[in-house]
Write a structure and sequence with these properties.
alpha/beta; four-stranded parallel sheet
Length: about 100
């Protein structure tokens, strides 16, 4: 490598926010997604709203059922602010159907 050569690692990874109240699942999903994304995490919707205000995100992935502010309540909160209204939101749930 010459002094004039510049090493580039490619384009930066997209930043996403993973919102999940169950710590074990949150850590597993963050670890799994970290190969392709920079993963920020939050344990509930209120924490997510604070983090969204501070970061430039490509996606919010949120659990539907959480204490405090759940994923269903988080979605309209994100849509009501011009800065966050266009961020895609993926709602996830670990709840299984009884059938």
């Amino acid at each position: 490598m010459n002094d004039g050569d510049v090493f580039t690692s490619g384009p930066p990874k997209p930043r996403i926010l993973l919102v999940e109240d169950e710590a074990t699942l949150r850590e597993y999903l963050a670890r799994t997604l970290s190969g392709d994304y920079v993963v920020d995490t939050a344990s509930d919707g209120r924490q997510a709203l604070m983090q969204v205000a501070q970061a430039c995100l490509e996606l919010v992935m949120t659990d539907i059922v959480m204490p405090e502010l759940d994923g269903i309540e988080l979605l309209p909160a994100l849509r009501s602010v011009p800065r966050t209204q266009m961020i895609p939101v993926l709602l996830i749930s670990g709840r299984a159907i009884d059938e």
